[in-house]
Design a protein that fits this description.
Blueprint: E1 4-18, E2 31-43, E3 46-50, H1 56-60, H2 62-68, H3 87-93, E4 103-105, H4 111-114, E5 124-128, H5 129-136, H6 145-148, E6 153-157, E7 161-164, E8 167-171, E9 180-184, E10 192-194, H7 202-206, H8 219-236, E11 239-241, H9 246-250
Parallel strand pairs: 3-4, 4-5, 5-6, 10-11
Antiparallel strand pairs: 1-2, 2-3, 7-8, 8-9, 9-10
Cofactor: Zn(2+)
Protein name: N-acyl homoserine lactonase
Keywords: Hydrolase, Metal-binding, Zinc
Length: 260
């Protein structure tokens, strides 16, 4: 039986960029707005946070913004993130502090998923071993070493596992070396299958289009992970959620209304 009690999608910022960053080889010249999301899962055995968004200071402080975002590697510039969108402030709206989060689960360690780790040095931080290895190289410019080179309580994983009954980590490499998705069994209604960046948009899922950025240019691996998620969606009769689709996000419960 699932231990999940409630589930919240949390908007931590937005980023405007060319669609080709989400759909490989498709969308040249088309600028899209993408939500940057975290997901809070309240269980009978504590609280789990799936991803933590960006580091607010790297966006707001001019010198840091220039160092991390204002160069050729980021032709579309930094994301937009307001003070209200910082995770500590979002949690406060639920009557929580960052210390009330027991586990942070990183789908991967790109800047828009691991930047907020500095707020959660007390928590267990789960990441796949292959992801950590790739991030430390770094495998691409979306890894900011300072985001995760911190005194954190790392729990480095090597496969698929249950965090608690009803919350399962799913291996979905391709976008990055050790990318992970998550299956969440709600107490009511269908399970939710969080694709993470294995699928940015609904289009990635329906058309089986790889993300624009693929680890070692391995488009086939990325598509295999999308196909795996679609199989799990059918097997568990789940709702498969893409991670950076603005229209999809807008059609779901507005924060702070939870799923139960």
């Amino acid at each position: 039986m699932t231990q999940v009690k409630k589930f919240w999608p949390i908007l931590t910022g937005t980023h405007r960029y060319e669609k080709t960053l989400s759909t490989r080889g498709r969308g040249q010249g088309e600028i899209i707005q993408a939500p940057i999301l975290a997901y809070l899962i309240e269980t009978q055995n504590g609280r789990i946070l799936f991803d933590v968004g960006c580091d607010y200071q790297k966006i707001q402080q001019p010198k840091l913004r220039q160092t991390y975002y204002e160069h050729e590697g980021f032709p579309f510039g930094p994301p937009d993130m307001t003070e209200e969108q910082q995770l500590p402030n979002k949690l406060a709206r639920l009557g929580l502090k960052t210390e009330d989060v027991d586990v942070v689960f990183c789908s991967h360690l790109h800047f828009d998923h691991a930047g907020g780790l500095c707020e959660f040095c007390h928590a267990e931080v789960h990441v796949h071993q292959q992801e950590m290895q790739a991030a430390l190289l770094p495998a691409d410019e979306a890894y900011f070493k300072s985001d995760f080179d911190l005194p954190l309580n790392w729990k480095v994983q090597t496969g698929e596992y249950d965090l608690v009954p009803g919350v399962s980590a799913i291996e979905t490499p391709g976008h990055t070396a050790g990318h992970m998705s998550m299956l969440i069994e709600l107490p009511k209604g269908k399970p939710i299958l969080l694709a993470g960046d294995a699928a940015d948009l609904v289009e990635n899922i329906t058309d089986e289009i790889a993300p624009g950025l693929c680890w070692q240019e391995n488009e086939t691996l990325a598509i295999q992970s999308i196909q795996k998620l679609k199989r799990l969606e059918l097997e568990h009769q789940a709702n498969l959620w893409p991670n950076h689709d603005w229209t999809f996000f807008q059609n779901h419960n507005p924060f702070p209304k939870p799923y139960e």
